[in-house]
Amino acid sequence: MRKYYTLLPALCLITLMTQGQQIKKSEVKRILSTLAADDMQGRETFKPGAEKAATFLEKEFAAAGLQPLAGDNDFRQSFFQYDTKPVKQELVLNGQATQGERVFVSSVEANISWTQDTEVEIAHINAGDNFDSKVRELKRTPKNTLVWVDSTQTEKFNQYAGGLQQHGASKQDSTATVVFVLKQQASDDAGKWSVQASQEVTRLPLCNVAGMITGSGKPDEYVIFSGHYDHIGILAPVKQDSIANGADDDASGVTAVLMLARYFKTHPPVRSILFVAFTGEEIGGYGSRYFSRQLDPEKIVAMFNIEMIGKESKFGKNSAFITGYERSDFGQILGRNLESSAFHFYPDPYPEQQLFYRSDNATLARLGVPAHTISTTQIDKDTLYHSVNDEIESMDFDNITSIIQAIATSATSIVNGKDTPSRIDKAAVSSRR
Question: Taxonomically, which superkingdom (predicted)?
Answer without folding.
Answer: Bacteria
